[in-house]
Amino acid sequence: MATMYDGTLGSYYLDESADWAAPVAEIAKAYDDVVARGATPKMLVIINPGNPTGASLPREALEAIVEFVASKPGLVLMADEVYQENVYGDAPAFISFKKVVHDLKSTIPVVSFHSVSKGFTGECGLRGGYFELTNVSEEVKEQLIKLASVSLCSNVLGQIAVGLMVNPPVDGRELKAYEDEKAAKLSSLERRANEVARALDALDGVSCVQPQGAMYLFPSITLPDAALAAAGAAGLAPDAFYALKLLESTGLVVVPGSGFGQKNGTWHFRTTFLPPEDQITAVTKRLAGFHDAFLASFKAPAGEL
Question: For this chain's UniProt record, which GO biological process terms are given (predicted)?
Answer without folding.
Answer: L-alanine catabolic process
